Amino acid sequence: MTDFLLLDGALLRAVDPVLLRATTFGHFTSLQVRDGRVDGLDLHFDRLDRSTREVFDEPMPADRVRTDLRAAVDEAGSGDLSIRVNVFATTRLHLLVRVGPPVAPTTDPVRLVTYEHERAVPHLKHTGTFDLTYYAHKAKKEGYDDALFRTRTGEISEASIWNICFARGTEIVFPSAPILQGIRQQILQRGLPTYTTAPVTAPELYDAAYLTNSIDPALPVASINDTTYEPHPESADLIARAYATQLPQTI
Prior knowledge:
D-amino Acid Aminotransferase, Chain A, domain 1, BCAT-like_C, D-amino Acid Aminotransferase, Chain A, domain 2, 9-stranded mixed β-sheet, lyase activity, 251 residues, lyase
């Protein structure tokens, strides 16, 4: 299938320059649709509503988002898609839905390099993503797969497009540094019987690390700088069982 855009539920055949300017200030959520269902759909609705209230002082009702998602599925003629929902405003609030083919999870463990960087307004999934792409490209030029951020005090926070968690035996630890609370991370936390949120400054103290986002639910980390990790079935099985308790939701 080819990518397409829906603006407030209607197919967008041409892009107005005013639209391009307006979409630079806003927020979004990204999701993978499989058989018309989405992992953590209620969390996506909540993210869009909370962020819209904070940025634009208005609510974003779940029913409005659901209607546009259903329009996207109908237009695509498929229940297997990648969708990004942008919220922006001109004289009123708009939903811009970008639709494309589904994306398969990453297959190989990734090698990360850390950079001191703290995103602006990290709790919002906002459209200011230049810094994330910049550091991801920088990491690849230096021979790594992606970038991992640490604060000025040395705490690990998040990767360019992923959250990260660490395992020590069957203890799962999420960094307490300021981050964007990803939907997949929230799903994992829902499913885990227990977990810890704490400062992470020394990745070598853990048995394993995993990246999570809408595409990769538990992507093993091969290395962080000079710290390497071997496969760790104990934590991998725990994470898999946690996800298995959280069923996808129908659009």
